[in-house]
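Quick log. Single chain, no ligands specified.
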Amino acid sequence: MEDAIEKFSIFGGVEWGGIDTSKPAFELIEKLILQDYRYIRNDITEVTGGMPLYHSILTAIALGDGKTHTAYKRANISKEVGDKAVDELCDIGIIKLKKAKKSSDKLYFTSPFLRFWFAFVSPLFKGIKDGDFKEVHKRYDNRKSEFINLPFTQLTQEFLKDLHKDDGLLECSSYWDDKDELDIYLKTKDKKTIVGSAKYTNSKIKKNELTKLQQISQDLGIKADVYVIFSKKGFSSELKSLKGQNLKLYTIKNLKQMLN
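-> predicted structure:
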């Protein structure tokens, strides 16, 4: 499942046939993306018009937390310029915007592949076009877990939507303000509130993650009925002993159905 989620984070949204998913991820990146850089770049340029402003913003979104103010700061542009460009990129269909009540809006790519491209390929084009892939490999190795955490979180949200589809679901997404963020915020028509976190790390999740969730919920003014935690590598014995009606724990294996 880890391998499947990693490859979804890279190739999700493409319509290419013949991807041998038994191959290691970076071998596929080299063969299918980096070696075909010019052809893929031309296709993406047709969509973006090759505008440097667009590419700066898209890379800033791909490498950051998605908040508009963070992206504009990273791209070194004003809010006015950024807002106009974001409207245009949303119209094109490359990104989508989620409004926030208490903070900056957030921007998301409409396909995992485009996010991968603007995080690891577009900014490093000089070496890639000369056939040197070392910098891409280094950046991907250094940022892989952080990069995959967003699609992992989105898969957990889809899992919960499916799990609660008969409960009159009103919302299932992330929730944030300028200080705090919840990976998962779910609300049903009967006013049941579920909050949670998704951790794509190589360590077991401990009890302090639950304590952190409870504190963030309190700081955000949210009264949670149930806490949910998703983990790549499982949970400590102490945390598992607390599992019950008010605490649900899920591992990466639970998400298998979302990738079928």
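The mean pLDDT is 94.
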